[in-house]
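Backbone-to-sequence.
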């Protein structure tokens, strides 16, 4: 028997299941618990989260501990301490968490001066009647709860931001720097991201982890410093429950990295979990969300010459059974490296190649 809800969920996405570009036979598997799946910058994070769950930790505490590794690492310039600042040189962080067993969630956005927004999001969930706090209110809440206020702008991030300002326009009062005297840390940044983010500053980065423990309880966490050189106050999908992260303890957990604006428009995290409800595997549910984005992206500035979304976005999911999956819009990252994701389970922690919608790499 198929319930009316499952039938309608399947029917609503039928146009997106048929006729889209086919993925490779990668990007998913599993079926054993515990398991953690997440973005490729979260390999050590996924490994730590798995260790914590094996030791008896709640899955949300486990994924937050993993995410904290990346938030604390100044070498990852897309999350937490050392994250790329906004256009005014201020680091603003977004994060959300969702706990399957309780069905509760918490989030913060445009948070300044607090290194671990994921932990603040958990405090919002546990101690308030709210889900999302933003800006100065989120900062004040964090201070009230004893989170130390720190300068999150590292010297490397400051140099990157200053170089970006110097390259903004030939009409402003900044003089473009001599390319032959480019700071080595700025050169390293450009090399790591595979494109010149100063002339095309739509780069971004995030960490997401979804986990299922040995009992089948689920949790998810997403954290980011957001779009490089974003407008002050910009909020992406990483702090929005239902977009950057969503958990239904009876079904699965899902989250996203990449172009947040595209994900917000389709509520990707919630969409993926509903596709799991309709019987799709985590991998195929992630692909469904990408097809929805491909179908609904209309602005020419966001499309390539063939009408495909020209930006990167990836989804990650795990089901209550321990099956996991991931899919990316493009087979390769801007650097030309294959799109990959982190998995940690009984076989250890590793990177696997993504399922994907289109062959090639994003151009914006």
């Amino acid at each position: 028997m198929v319930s009316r809800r499952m039938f309608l969920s399947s029917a609503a996405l039928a146009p997106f299941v048929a006729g889209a570009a086919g993925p490779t036979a990668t990007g998913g598997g599993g079926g054993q618990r515990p398991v953690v799946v997440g973005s490729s910058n979260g390999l050590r994070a996924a490994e730590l989260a798995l260790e914590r769950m094996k030791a008896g930790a709640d899955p949300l505490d486990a994924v937050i501990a993993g995410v904290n590794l990346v938030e604390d690492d100044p070498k990852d310039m897309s999350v937490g301490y050392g994250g790329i600042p906004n256009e005014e040189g201020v680091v603003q962080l977004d994060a959300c968490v969702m706990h399957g067993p309780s069905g509760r969630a918490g989030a913060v956005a445009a948070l300044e001066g607090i290194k671990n927004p994921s932990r603040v999001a958990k405090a919002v969930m546990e101690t308030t009647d709210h889900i999302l706090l933003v800006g100065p209110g989120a900062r004040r809440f964090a201070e009230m709860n004893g989170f130390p206020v720190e300068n999150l702008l590292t010297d490397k991030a400051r140099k990157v931001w200053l170089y970006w300002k110097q390259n903004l326009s030939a009409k402003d009062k900044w003089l473009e720097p001599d390319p032959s005297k480019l700071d080595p840390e700025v050169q390293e940044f450009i090399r790591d991201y595979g494109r010149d983010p100063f002339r095309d500053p739509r780069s971004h980065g995030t960490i997401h982890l979804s986990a299922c423990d040995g009992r089948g309880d689920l949790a998810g966490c997403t954290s980011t410093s957001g779009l490089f050189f974003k407008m002050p106050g910009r909020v992406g999908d990483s702090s929005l429950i239902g977009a950057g992260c969503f958990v239904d303890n009876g079904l699965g957990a899902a989250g996203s990295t990449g172009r947040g604006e595209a994900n917000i428009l389709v509520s990707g995290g919630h969409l993926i979990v509903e596709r799991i409800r309709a019987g799709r595997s985590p991998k195929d549910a992630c692909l469904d969300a990408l097809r929805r984005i491909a179908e609904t992206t209309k602005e020419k500035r966001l499309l390539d010459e063939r009408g495909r979304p020209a930006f990167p976005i990836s989804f990650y999911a795990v089901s209550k059974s321990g099956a996991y999956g991931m899919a990316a819009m493009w087979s390769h990252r801007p650097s030309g490296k294959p799109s990959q994701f982190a998995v940690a389970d009984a076989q250890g922690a590793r990177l696997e190649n993504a399922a994907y919608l289109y062959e090639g790499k994003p151009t914006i």
